[in-house]
Amino acid sequence: MDQPDRAHMVEIELKARIADRKAVEVQLASFMRFAGDIDKRDEYWEVSGWNPLAPAAFRFRIRAEPARTTVTFKEKTFDGNIEINRESEFSVDNEAVFRKFMEKLEARFVYAKRKIGTRWESAESLVAEVVEVEPLGLFLEVECVCEQLDSEALDEAKCRLYEVIDRCGIPRANLEPRPYSQMLGY
Questions:
Q1: Which residue from 26, 25, 44, 40 is spatially nearest to 134, judged by alpha carbons?
Q2: In angstroms, rounded to a whole number, what is the distance separating the alpha carbons of residues 15 and 35?
Q3: Please, what is the average pLDDT of the chain?
Q4: How many CB atoms lie within 10 A of CB 153?
Q5: Distance in angstroms (rounded) separating the CA atoms of residues 108 and 50
Q6: Which of helix, strand or coil describes residue 68?
Q7: Long-range contacts of residues 63-70, Cβ cutoff 8 Å, at least 24 apart
Q8: C-alpha distance from residue 72 to each of 2, 22, 175, 178 (Å)
Q9: 180 vs 186: CA distance, rounded Å
């Protein structure tokens, strides 16, 4: 759900567990445009030791997709079931050299995940993905990206995200507030 070379964007998203991929995709097709199949291989890495006063290591993601590789680092917060990420992201045109750079930084591999599914887009700049995340199961992820975030923009985004979930017939009880990292034990 990302675009290459985005710096300092705010991504507002939620996800829900789903049981029937086809039923959700049929509903999405009634109000969103199918944008293609997705296969995202994510690796999470961390670098520590830069700042002894920092409470945690600096963590980043390398995402390999068929057409590109991107690196993302985030400041993540939560508002109920909504995840708010202030993201910085850039593309990598030479992954081998970037991995040598990571080696010099003494980056430590944390975990990997893979998301396979379909991508849907709305005229209102919403993105939905129906994904399988092994071993966690099927999810509908819905997001919008904002240049800035104030309380009015957040409230509007939340309404739009919940509307997609509602239109797909997914009960609010199926919303998953935990990030995948927590569900996977990291």
A1: 40
A2: 19
A3: 92
A4: 15
A5: 14
A6: strand
A7: 63/2, 64/40, 64/95, 65/38, 65/39, 65/40, 65/41, 66/39, 68/4, 69/95, 69/98, 70/2, 70/4
A8: 9, 30, 24, 19
A9: 9
Structure tokens at 1: 């759900």
- Find out whether the peptide bond into 55 is cis, omega within 30 degrees of 0: no
Using CA atoms, how far residue 166 sits from 111, 146, 163, in Å, is 32, 22, 5
Give the global pTM. 0.89
Q: What pLDDT does 56 receive?
A: 72
Counting residues of the chain whose pLDDT is more than 70, the rounded percentage is: 93
Residue with tokens 């991504």: 11
